[in-house]
Specification:
about 750 residues; alpha/beta; eight-stranded mixed beta sheet; eight-stranded parallel β-barrel; 19 helices; about 30% strand; globular
Length: about 750
């Protein structure tokens, strides 16, 4: 019997979690949303007398056994497997079903039978997962009688995208195989089909390679468990038996076990072996593979050294013997060219091959590795940097630096997996960073994940066919434990599962809030350390220039919460619809559950101020990576949120030095602007802010100098307003913020 026990315990957990809240209208709780659900009349009564009908040749037996495991976990009995009977459940493979769409299925429930129909075992598996979610829905189960009344319906379903993935970084922090298997079980429950296993990086080599045993004897271990301590230290490696050694690796037998476990769940494991950058662990243990010939000098492989290619091909040969995946991921990201510029071997390679620069040198390596993989019947996939210097002929691109790399590759005729950081990086904060464990930065709540669609509008329908799907990335710099990893992955992975499986037109945010609330309870009962959603209120403003006012809208990630708010010190009100603010106001809002206000309170000032819509002249240009709304950003009336990547914070790698023209001379008494600090990704407060005003734009009077009070060593998120009150007349306001370090981000300059 196929070992599905762990997979099916999930559904037992789902049953227990739903015991206190039963929807009266029997709305389905399915995630991802099926393509089509056609309700019928009546019920199918599933009890211990129901028969699992198995054809004489054994067709559908493994799915009958899978379903029995689900039923046993909930009701404590198993159904009989027979080739005939009444009140039956059957699994049928019909090669003509859906004309070859391998993952499609039909689930039909009638008063006398349940049938799952597909043209492949994958389709039957996904149909069984949907049936399992129905069994796990408390509204259909009569616990006292240990039976189900399942609604009559027909579900026609198939995925929109063929690639539906989760990336797991086990280099920065090592996670045992049991956790990887737990992730595979949960992926299968939500119809994801690719595990991208990031097995090698500077922080540790995690896969046994017989030909190079030192990779796991030394490169798999470091002296510090905390990755950031190690990264900010000397970045040396050690051995397993050394005091304080941290790390680990998967033996080849363990790899085979995980790959087989995944295959039974119709999940392909895609291995990643990083090259030519992120290879500090390789170059430090085998220094002859680096340009300097010495350990601990750099993290790039020497492309001019023929031994490098011998090493790479030997490693990939063993990797391919373990992973049947069509794709082999070679990384290709964030490689420095500094060592190659100084390396005689690399420069010689460039000259011999007519390469113009070091980007083309990296491309030379990617081309050569792809040719080797192709000769073994495999395909190369890499991060979007593999576009730099020229893309290998048949390579697939994983677009992480936004969508531009994916768009470029698709237009070139290459297949693409979308994984942009703004929507798919699950190492970002998912709630107010001030309430969360340390993370790399950013702000990615599950609703933003849910809002994503992998095919950019810029692509033609033909180009869009090259977008194979999307993937969530879990980078583990700040994720030291499996419990923390679960917290970061769930429930956001459920949002992505619907993004890549369900038709775009079927997605509906409020309904998804309802369904995810159920699934969070189910995951908790399963023992998953799921993030249980925050009480954060998202306040959205819309600038109404015609009436010189701001439209205020509240939203929350919880389903239909009671939101109460106050304007200035006015009466507390229940939020029912958007409202308007003229001039300025301080707004306070919070969620009330069971009569108790939440501890998380939104407090924000909004301003329809004098400078809205006025011209801003930049003496120093903002960063092209964080332009926000361009030259109108600082006077458009929109304030930034909890992440500098939300399109409202404008980033500078220089001093902020701008001039606002108010069109007319007027009395001025107030200037304020918000800045952000989050030192992990290199975002700092300014050293100080200077505000000056002028009547003629030539002669300026300094009205305020505001010193920064936030320590540069403060690592948590800080958003601080630099505000000054004064009395002056002027038409022009000059705002200067002295850069301290890294980026500085500003959202709006408020002028009264």
């Amino acid at each position: 019997m196929i070992q599905y026990r762990l997979l099916c315990v999930v559904w037992a957990g789902l049953m227990m979690a739903c015991s206190t809240s039963v929807p009266q209208d029997m709305e389905l709780q399915l995630i991802p949303q099926p393509k089509q659900v056609v309700p019928g009349q009546g019920n199918f009564k599933l009890n211990e007398n129901t028969v699992l009908k198995i054809a004489s040749e054994g067709e559908g037996k493994e799915y009958g056994e899978l379903l029995n495991t689900m039923i046993s976990a909930i009701a404590g009995y198993e159904l009989l497997l027979r080739d005939e009977g009444e009140n039956v459940i059957q699994f049928v493979i019909d090669t003509a079903f859906r004309s070859g769409k391998a993952e499609a299925y039909q689930l039909q429930i009638s008063p006398g039978s349940i049938s799952v129909l597909a043209n492949s075992s994958a389709g039957l598996f996904y149909g069984t997962q949907t049936l399992g979610q129905l069994l796990a829905d408390r509204q259909f189960y009569q616990a006292g009688k240990k039976r189900w009344n399942l609604p009559v319906l027909t579900i026609e379903d198939e995925p929109v995208f063929s690639y539906r993935g989760l990336h797991l970084d086990v280099s920065r922090h090592f996670f045992p195989k049991e956790f990887v298997m737990k992730c595979l079980d949960l992926m299968a429950n939500y119809k994801l089909n690719r595990l991208h296993w990031h097995l090698t990086d500077a922080a540790g080599w995690r896969i046994e390679i017989k030909k190079y045993p030192e990779l796991t004897k030394r490169a798999a271990w470091r002296p510090q468990a905390n990755y950031m301590d190690w990264w900010e230290g000397d970045r040396h490696y050690t051995t397993e038996d050394a005091d304080g050694a941290y790390g680990g690796f998967y033996t080849q037998d363990e790899i085979r076990e995980v790959v087989a476990y995944a295959a039974r769940r119709h999940i392909t494991v895609v291995p990643e072996i990083e090259m030519p950058g992120h290879s500090e662990e390789v170059v430090s243990i085998y220094p002859q593979l680096g340009c300097y010939g010495k350990p601990y000098r750099n993290g790039e492989l020497c492309i001019g050294n023929e031994e490098t290619f011998e090493f790479v091909e030997n490693v990939l040969t063993e990797v391919m013997s373990l992973f049947p995946s069509e794709y082999i991921h070679i990384g290709g990201d964030e490689a420095s060219t500094a060592a190659w510029k100084k390396c005689q071997k690399c420069q010689k390679r460039m000259k011999e091959n007519g390469l113009k620069n070091e980007k083309e040198l990296q491309s030379y390596m990617i081309h050569r590795v792809e040719k080797f993989l192709n000769s073994k019947g495999r395909k190369l996939i890499g991060w979007d940097e593999i576009l730099d210097g020229g893309l290998a002929p048949d390579a697939t691109v994983m677009s992480w630096r936004g969508e531009s790399g994916g768009i470029k590759a698709a237009r070139m005729g290459h297949d693409v997996i979308m994984t942009p950081g703004g929507y798919c990086y699950f190492d970002s904060y998912q709630a107010d960073p001030r309430t969360q464990p340390a993370a790399i930065g950013g702000f990615l709540p599950y609703l933003k994940v849910y809002s994503y669609y992998p095919v950019p509008e810029e692509l033609t329908p033909e180009e869009g066919k090259h977008i194979l799907g999307a993937q969530a990335n879990v980078w583990a710099e700040y994720i030291p434990t499996t419990s923390h990893a679960e917290y970061m992955i769930f429930p956001r992975l459920l949002a992505l599962s619907e993004v890549v499986w369900s038709p775009r037109e079927k997605k509906e945010t409020e309904d998804f809030k309802r369904r995810i609330a159920y699934h969070i309870g189910w995951l908790k009962e399963k023992g998953v350390n799921v993030f249980t959603l925050s009480d954060h209120i998202d306040m959205q403003t819309e600038v109404d220039t015609l009436n010189r006012q701001l439209k205020i809208t509240f939203d929350a990630e919880k389903y239909k919460p009671e939101i109460r708010y106050q304007i200035d010190d006015g009466q507390e009100q229940v939020y029912r619809r958007p409202f308007y603010v003229k001039d300025s106001a301080r707004i306070k809002a919070f969620i009330v559950e069971n009569g108790k206000p939440s501890e998380e309170v939104l407090e924000s000032r909004v301003d329809y101020h004098r400078a809205i819509g006025k011209k801003v002249t930049y003496q120093k240009r903002y960063s092209g990576s964080y332009p926000a709304a361009g030259t109108g950003t600082l006077t458009d009336g929109y304030r930034g949120g909890l992440t500098y990547g939300d399109g409202r914070w404008q980033g500078f790698l220089a001093d902020v030095d701008v001039l606002i023209d108010l069109d007319t001379v007027c009395n001025l008494n107030y200037v304020s602007a918000n800045f952000m600090q989050l030192t992990g990704p290199g975002v700092y407060m300014p050293r100080y802010v200077v505000v000056s005003v002028s009547v003629d734009g030539v002669h300026f009077q300094e009205v305020a100098r505001i010193e920064n009070q936030v320590p540069s060593g403060e690592k948590s998120l800080v958003i601080r307003d630099f505000t000054t009150r004064f009395r002056a007349r002027g038409r022009y306001v000059k705002f200067f913020a002295k850069r301290q370090n890294g980026f500085q981000f500003i959202d709006e300059i408020v002028v009264y």
